[in-house]
Every structure is written in structure tokens, then in C-alpha cells.
Amino acid sequence: xxxxxxxxxxxxxxxxxxxxxxxxxxxxxxxxxxxxxxxxxxxxxxxxxxxxxxxxxxxxxxxxxxxxxxxxxxxxxxxxxxxxxxxxxxxxxxxxxxxxxxxxxxxxxxxxxxxxxxxxxxxxxxxxxxxxxxxxxxxxxxxxxxxxxxxxxxxxxxxxxxxxxxxxxxxxxxxxxxxxxxxxxxxxxxxxxxxxxxxxxxxxxxxxxxxxxxxxxxxxxxxxxxxxxxxxxxxxxxxxxxxxxxxxxxxxx
Amino acid sequence: xxxxxxxxxxxxxxxxxxxxxxxxxxxxxxxxxxxxxxxxxxxxxxxxxxxxxxxxxxxxxxxxxxxxxxxxxxxxxxxxxxxxxxxxxxxxxxxxxxxxxxxxxxxxxxxxxxxxxxxxxxxxxxxxxxxxxxxxxxxxxxxxxxxxxxxxxxxxxxxxxxxxxxxxxxxxxxxxxxxxxxxxxxxxxxxxxxxxxxxxxxxx
Lengths: 253, 204
Hints:
The complex is a heterodimer. Chain A is an alpha/beta fold. Chain A is 35% helix and 25% strand. Chain A has an 8-stranded parallel beta barrel with strand order 1-4-5-6-7-10-11-12, surrounded by 7 helices. In chain A, strand 7 (126-134) and strand 8 form a beta hairpin. In chain B, strand 11 (161-167) and strand 12 (169-177) form a beta hairpin. At the A-B interface, helix 2 of A face helix 1, strand 8, strand 9 and helix 5 of B.
């Protein structure tokens, strides 16, 4: 039987690992991403997602160097994302060690890009990241550009479209919950997991291990967090133990 | 010295990293010319993508003959993911194609056993070892390994199966016949269990 997955997210800005609070990335946690990998208990995490949250597209080359370094010590699936807008850059990330590509803004601007990527690298390689913001009308809308731009696309509809176009997984974060320590936006996660048949990765807001369990209960196949794993010693191991002790189906450590 | 065969598909860097990790003295090289294979003592056949495309590229570079020759001398061979499937007699992904025929059996779609579970089969899943083997030394039975695939090698002989995994029904996730090994999962992405397996192969 397939296991649920525990995912550590590393946010890289201008080559440094940063914290995210409501999509603001100002606090530097590590000056070199390799320290983030080392500081995790490597044996407990099931997957690592590294996202380039730099403000400038010119950060792309430096990000390639970060992925290269990380991949040497990463023996779980490694996903890379941020500023992926063409096949050539996607190929470069894979060539330097990424197993999956995480695409957000450019997929919204050019949905056909999802199909292009899926045809080239296979669906299993394509993770569509969706940042969502609750509108005044109570409906969730897709945000792009690291949360700066709220579109008129409804999150639920975009999730279904991304699946149809060839996404292998969806990575769901909420602008309202990111870094707020109250746990995932469970209503949002539930509405998406009940609509699509591909795995959903829940992200944003985890502060207690119980929040991870809530994500699984909401139907997510994988639960992700960033900040909390950096600030608690042996954090990923403790999180894993909590989830397994709770009777949830995760890879044993 | 270990050769990782490069026939033009996939990312070979991760496998190379896994071999180098904790194996300081081992020499490992990516080999893209078949006539160089004789200079190495062990061979790794990696692979992602479709069976037909891969086997044509292998034949196009004469790796099929070189692999058969070196394996005939008793050298250890490890096929990983599609590399395991290529060991089979034939594959049926986009039409029938002959494989390397080192492990008797056909490569078929996992849909046929997956009982409506999603295909590809992606993620961490258990491998049950059917017998003791040096490749499994120090790895707990039923450890989880990382899988990404849509097809599997349906062995003709039960005796060739070293390990099985359940996805709907059971399928062979590890094969072994004498000096030939194949694993359907990615040891280079399977953390500790995978790294131990890689080290065991290096030490065979």
C-alpha cells in the first residue's frame, strides 16, 4: 500500500534559505541551502521541495547552483520550482538533480505549458502549485507572482483544469493561512481533494504536529511544512513519529 | 570500477551520487560507448521513459551485445526502474519489442493488476523479500522504497523474483538470477534502505 508523505519545503531567496509568513520572505534561516538539508533529520523526511522565491528572474542561474548542491546529499525525491517558464530551464533543473518541477505563475498565464511539460517529462514530473486567497465573496481565488496578484480564476476550477492538462500532483497553499501557525486551510484542501484524483500536497500554516494529521484527514496524500522544520530540533523525526503513532500510514523510520 | 550505462535517457547524477555517498573508495563512471564496458567490473543499467525508445537506443549503441558479453563473464549487473524492465524477454509499451532477455518474462502495464488504483504507481511502497541475498544485507524486510512506474516485469519463473510489492495485486519489484539483478524502485531516492542496497551492490 502506498504511504502518505511528509515533505519539507525549503524556500530559497537569492541563494539563501528564508522563512515565509503570508508570502513575505524576509527572515534568513540559513545562508546556504545545504545547511537546511543537513539540519533536517534526513532519514525521516519522504520528499524535499525547494522553491526559488526570489523577486527577480535573474535568480534562475543561482538557483540551479543551489539545486546542484542539494541534490548531492538528497536521497529522496527532490522537487524544484520558481521561475520555471520554458522547457529549457525545466530541463536544466532536471539535469542538475530535480526529479519533479513545481510550476505556479507561468501555468496560470499559459495553461498549455502544463501539457508541454507533461509530454516532455511525464505527468509524474509535474507538480502544479496553486496559491489561493479567499475573496470577499467567500470564494477561493488563484493568486500568482508569490501571492502578489489575485486573479479572477476560481481555485477549484483551476485545480481541475490543471489535472486535465497533465499535472501529476497539486501543491496547495493558502495566502490566508501561510505562516499563521493555525494549521492548513482544511476547507480549501478538502474541496480540492474531493474534486481531483491526483495527489494533493497540503502546505502552509503548520505549527503543531496535529496540523499534519489534519491535512491527511482532509484527503491530502502528502503534508508539507517549511518554517516549523527549521526551528525544532530533530523536527522531521518527531513529526514522523507523531503521525505513525497516530496510526496514519507513513513510511517507517 | 562501476559503469553507469548512458544511452541518452534520464538523470544519471542521482545514481552516481548514491554510489559515491558512503563509498569513498569506489570508482564510478558514466559510460556512453559500448566497447568501454569491458573495462568495468560492475554495470548499472538505469532508465526512465518508454521501453521501446530505450531498447532501440541501447541497440543503436550496441550496448545489448556488450551487456550480454560482460554478464556472460560473471560481472554483476543491476537494472534500475526501466533498466530492470529492459532485462525482460519482451516489452509491450507502445507495441511489442524484444528486450535484453536476461530475465525471462514480459513487461506489462500495471493497470492490469492495479485494481483501479491510479497509474503510474508513484510513491513509497513496501518490498517483501522472498529470500536472503547479499544485496539485501542489513535491510529490514518490508522496508519502503520509492517507486515511479507504469509497467512491471512479469517474471516467467517464480525463482527469479527476489522481492514483491503490492499495488492492487502483487508484482515482482526485485529480480535476481545469478549475477543479474533488477529493482523496479529507485534505490537512489529511497533514503537509508536504498543507500544500503547500493552499498551492498558495490560490495558484491
